[in-house]
Amino acid sequence: MRRNPWFETVAEAQHRAEKRLPAMVYGALVAGSERGRTIEHNVSAFADLGFAPRVAGHHAQRDLSTTVMGVETSFPVLISPTGVQAVNPDGEVAVARAAANRGVIMGLSSFASKPVEEVVAANPNTFYQMYWSGDRDAMVQRMDRARKAGAKALIATLDWSFSHGRDWGSPAIPDKIDFKTAMRLAPGVLPRPGWLWRFAKTGRVPDLTVPNLQPPGGTAPTFFGAYAEWMQTPPPTWDDVKWMRTEWDGPFLLKGITRVDDARKAVDAGVTALSVSNHGGNNLDTTPATIRVLPSIVEAVGDQIEVLLDGGVRRGGDVAKALALGARAVLIGRAYLWGLAANGQAGVENVLDIMRSGLDSAVLGLGHTGVRDLSPRDLVIPPGFHLTLGGETGSDSTKD
Q: Which residues are known catalytic residues?
């Protein structure tokens, strides 16, 4: 009997992704760095927070919609930009269609496997993401291309320290797929014939190039070629962030903030919004869970710019908790990638439906008419849960 393609939790989507993907591909989705503590903490911190539900006076109609940097979304969950989505032949285009069908914003990585033009055509509400990579002329060319394609905002991701090594081992991902490489990888791929068949039907092998970094008149680099450029580019200063913000001259989200002093510098640089993020645990391991540092960032700059959060969001209830602590919206990454691996575009839609349903249940149970009513009073917050990094004295502290 064929299994129902619908799944009821993100955990089940992850389970199906693990069963359907070659081990090296699944390992790339799990990712993480060093001991993997930050990945664990991002998820477990949400579970440490409780709800304080009401027993009567609930509202039959609830408004989950909001805006992010002026762009409407049916509920406050955005697709976080993630690189080379070779878990499915349609990759980012399938994700963009799913997001459009559910009325949410698509974030597209500059390291994506599909060109920005195709993704914007699938979802006009696309935010284009860039790293500080290459020289300024190359970055201007990439911004101009995204702007011409119709991207409505720029996401600058800066939370990366190139941490290497995982206690559980890093996946063996090739630079490109050719006949020799295919033969070498065959033992790991053949046990997952369904994944292989989906690509075979398209007549293409997984494309490990990044077309959005293709220079005019040149060829698209491979993922690792683009990664090498990124690693070799001197890290940006706050003046570079200001330059990037000015050059884009539109809605601008800075991703990777965990410290109050950095949040204030981001405001000074003129950003429209920031995302409290530790790169999903793929950056410097043992960085605190983002939900723990969110309130301090909101308190410091939330009246000046929009504050978003990503990292560890697996349920609609997690979304509600982030909003209650001041986030405008959240971004999800692994959750939708597992949905994409489990059931393509429909799997991503399934994950978004799970998020929406869980959020709606929380808003209902807490007795509110919409997401904008959520507040810390709706939560049970353990003593010492909140963390402030980079506070006024320069020392880190906790607050209850």
A: 279
